[in-house]
Amino acid sequence: MAANFALSASSQPALRRLAALGDLNDSEMHALRDATSARRTVAQYRMIQTEGEPITGPSIVLSGWAAAIWSFADGRRQIMGVALPGELIGMARQQRPLAPCSIYAVTDVILCPAPRPLAGREGTGLAEVYAVSEALEQHYQYAHIARLGRLSAQDRVSDWLLEMHDRMNAAGLAQGNAFPFPLTQEVMADALGLTGVHVNRTVQGLRREGLIDLRKGEVRLPKIERLRSMVHYQQPRVAETARP
Amino acid sequence: MAANFALSASSQPALRRLAALGDLNDSEMHALRDATSARRTVAQYRMIQTEGEPITGPSIVLSGWAAAIWSFADGRRQIMGVALPGELIGMARQQRPLAPCSIYAVTDVILCPAPRPLAGREGTGLAEVYAVSEALEQHYQYAHIARLGRLSAQDRVSDWLLEMHDRMNAAGLAQGNAFPFPLTQEVMADALGLTGVHVNRTVQGLRREGLIDLRKGEVRLPKIERLRSMVHYQQPRVAETARP
DNA sequence: CGCGTTCTTGACTGCTTTCAAAGATGGTGG
DNA sequence: CCACCATCTTTGAAAGCAGTCAAGAACGCG
Question: What is the pTM of this model?
Fold first, then answer.
């Protein structure tokens, strides 16, 4: 029972995010909780998915940070996006899908299979939750493209940290303006299309202005509203009634 | 009858691309051909979809180039991706979806509604074709992120033109190494995260090396294989059996 | 306490932007 | 057929942002 409690405790943020995306009935909530017992842990730096290889099925990230990444022959790397607790990995609708990119565990990551939505419940419940989650992911991807294409280093860092804050918050993992942040500056650089050295200088600049406070696995955004207006940050809205 | 022929002729490239993505039975081919008669033309520079507004339903681009774009308050713009003949716009699974970005007509664009796949035919026919098309779009988006994050101006232009060639080719709109290319260098700059001036200099560099030949609405890639190896270009593979 | 990883700093280089203006090009109307 | 205009392309010079290389400091872990 104690073990069971620990299990559900560690998956609580993930379920919280999913439940907030739509209206799940009891049997769907149960299906979700049930799925979390078939969890699988991927150790830090290990691959969760490899580009070009078959995808087994959709998963939910229960805890940890995962990153979708492209590696170049010369060692350059680009992180296409991250997956946080409560977010989905490996959704695909075609037959015998192949992974469009590699996904690796930035920290230890706990996953569980995403339960299939009940047939005939399109537009409601789990199916709707997954659809909204995918739409949000689409939005994050667009935002990332705009960041890389048109923002300065300082704005990229600011805008991206704001997004991370929102997404961690959706899982209840942010406390006010602060949230756990396990990435090294080198990994941030891979996400933001910069070099590690330049991320460092940029972070220091923002720190000097008191806009961010990045230390030992946690970020704090003391002047979050000022940061938001600086980069014209906008919350995603993907459906007329959904909360983002 | 002559008018009818003209209609089907202009939508032929679009249907060709879609048909190549999966196995469509007669009734599905008929549904597609049928849908093209409900076409709608959007004049150059007009909006096809506006960010934050409700999406009516999925459409097929029958002809012309459309671009998904984010505009910043100060006039900067970033093109997230383009939609070519045979490609889909406005696919969304959630209820009452809102457009995640604006889409505008780079040239005159002809659209038609995408017919609904038959119920119970998931994994086959139209449903599969749409799924594969979405997976390809996902791939193009990842490729775009990697381009913007890690490639030099010259590699961005090269890699992107190679992708455009492949995608035009899928609709049968490429003739050997050449294909129609209606974009100005300014629009290319918005897609590639560069300035118009720098795109110009970059294009001239590639031209001098005989790698590209960009003129009056057409691109030719005389040394396409060399270009491909230069940027390590890879065709997308989204399913084990599908041709990309 | 020692070692590896991560963060920090400096000097220098170079790619890309900015600003401004001059050429091409294509379409239009006289 | 040509003049004219708007749009698009091309060019130059100067400034700036980010990358590179190299080394040292700080941190966390065993």
Answer: 0.95
